[in-house]
């Protein structure tokens, strides 16, 4: 069976124009960089021709895999399904809209291969205003600030879902709707080490953003309170001694 180094998991909701462009952009990077890759597109119940686009890519390129949901289940569910299908040593999540630039993939690989690193998070801080308008940048920055303040966290850009994990981290994740924004915090709670890399933020040329200010700021505020509560209830036990004679039992 093909054993890729990198599994790129891409949630797709009404991104028919972006899917083939993103595929080409990824191949143009991972080919010359010699990164054995699989690309898993998860169609989250799109109403346009995204699934047709995914199907024709699978026919053209055996490194592409497709998963189709029966109906729209949300970005967290689509990312989760992609990550659970991944076979690579490293698992990456990336938006389908080309705002995350595949040119940054080698920097993620370099960072995740450093000793002791389990997760690499993209952070759009320096280039934010190139790809998004004022309202989006302001609401995303506010959401990031509130998240960090209320969950005593120091993730520069939790709203950026361009990330790379060691695959064993994915097995530890139990996600709920909306929690894709908190994956770095959830992994830190499991004892994993996170580092950040600066990433490009391109403008969205095709299709529309699926979130407005309401989603970004207010809906995710509820999720934040849940995460804050979870952080105060971590079990965090450490076994000092253990007594066990069961191996003496025969039969
Ligand atoms: N997405 C999805 N299901 C949804 C909403 C969004 O799979 O219900 C996908 C979408 O196609 C994109 C990613 O999740 O690949 C992030 O969505 P979007 O780019 O609209 O969010 P933004 O970057 O504007 O926050
Ligand atoms: Mg996007």
Question: What's the quick description here?
Answer:
This protein is an alpha/beta fold. The protein has helices spanning 18-30, 50-60, 75-85, 105-112, 128-131, 134-150, 167-172, 183-189, 213-232, and strands spanning 6-12, 37-43, 64-68, 90-93, 119-123, 163-166, 194-198. The chain has a single domain, classed as Spore Coat Polysaccharide Biosynthesis Protein SpsA, Chain A (Alpha-Beta Complex).
How would you describe this structure to a colleague?
This protein is of the alpha/beta class and 251 residues long. It has one domain: Alpha-Beta Complex (Spore Coat Polysaccharide Biosynthesis Protein SpsA, Chain A), CATH 3.90.550.10. 39% of the residues lie in helices and 15% in strands. The protein contains nine helices and seven strands. It has helices spanning 18-30, 50-60, 75-85, 105-112, 128-131, 134-150, 167-172, 183-189, 213-232; strands at residues 6-12, 37-43, 64-68, 90-93, 119-123, 163-166, 194-198. The chain has a seven-stranded mixed β-sheet, with helices on both faces. Helix 6 (134-150) packs parallel to helix 9 (213-232). The chain is globular, with a radius of gyration of 19 Å. The model has no long low-confidence stretch (mean pLDDT 92). Bound molecules: uridine-5'-diphosphate and magnesium ion (MG). Residues 11-13, 15, 44, 72, 74-75, 78, 95-97, 99, 209-211 line the site of uridine-5'-diphosphate. Magnesium ion is lined by residues 95, 97, 99.
Pick out its properties.
single chain, 251 residues, alpha/beta, Spore Coat Polysaccharide Biosynthesis Protein SpsA, Chain A, 7 strands, 39% helix, 15% strand, globular, binds uridine-5'-diphosphate, binds magnesium ion
